[in-house]
Design goal:
This protein is of the alpha/beta class and 226 residues long. The chain has a single domain (13-225), classed as Alpha/Beta hydrolase fold, catalytic domain (Rossmann fold). Helices cover 31% and strands 20% of the residues. It has five helices and six strands; from the N terminus they run αβαβββαβαβα. α2 (53-61) crosses α3. The chain is globular. The N and C termini lie far apart (39 Å).
Length: 226
């Protein structure tokens, strides 16, 4: 069942000043705890679909006019749901979920792409849902061409332990995103589907991508990880 997302509303200047002071104090106390607990540790992993290259092409054909933007699939695609450890805006520990795309039927190692989705207004959506159009597009655009991909749901959505979403909070969105990358890197590093970058780095040429609000975290990701 889909429920409305509880967005963090914009406070007044006085409320912001008081909140920043409180958050800064809490973050100092929480930092040692969050650093000690392995951020990016994978808590669960479940396969949600498996498509051959032919299946990917059939899926794309149902995109209508948009299908002309996709090249013929060179690889099959497996889609997974992962949950992992990350941090809330105040620095305390939180759980988040993500979709993970792994190419099949083609030779690795595979470069890793991180994809940030746009604004969602309901909580039940998730990037590991094989029926979700955005997840299908990422699977075809990247997985079908031999790229592994991780697609964070952000806090407040899907399997998140937080019941509200820090909308346009670029720092936290970047934290949650990079922890998803860390979890994916560990999951794939010792597998036959090993990713190309065992030490993942964001590059300006498109390793981090996403539309609308999904692009707001990318500059922060590049600043912290390039």
């Amino acid at each position: 069942m889909l429920s409305p997302v509880r967005f963090l509303t914009r406070p007044t200047a006085r409320q912001r000043a008081a909140a920043f002071a409180a958050i800064a104090s809490a973050a100092v106390l929480a930092a040692s705890v969050a650093d000690a607990a392995e951020r990016g540790a994978c808590l669960s992993m479940t396969q949600t679909s498996s498509r051959t290259a032919n299946d990917v092409d059939k899926m794309v054909a149902n995109f209508g006019v948009e299908a002309q933007l996709f090249s013929a699939a060179q690889c099959g695609v497996d889609l997974y749901r992962i949950t992992y450890q990350t941090v809330a805006p105040d620095g305390t520990l939180a759980v988040a979920s993500a979709g993970m795309v792994v190419p099949t039927q083609c030779t690795g190692p595979y470069p890793l792409v991180e994809y940030n989705h746009g604004t969602w207004t309901t909580t039940g959506l998730e990037m590991s849902d094989p029926k979700m159009r955005t997840a299908q597009e990422v699977s075809a655009q990247f997985g079908g061409q031999g790229y592994a991909a991780v697609m964070p749901d952000y806090l407040g959505y899907a399997s998140s332990s937080l019941d509200w979403h820090p909308y346009l909070h670029a720092v936290n969105n970047a934290d949650v995103t990079m922890d998803a990358v860390r979890a994916t890197r560990v999951l794939l590093a010792d597998s036959p589907e090993a990713i190309e970058q065992l030490e993942f780095h964001i590059r300006p040429d498109g390793d981090a991508t996403g539309p609308s609000r999904g692009g707001s975290a990318a500059p922060r990701e590049r600043a912290c990880c390039s």
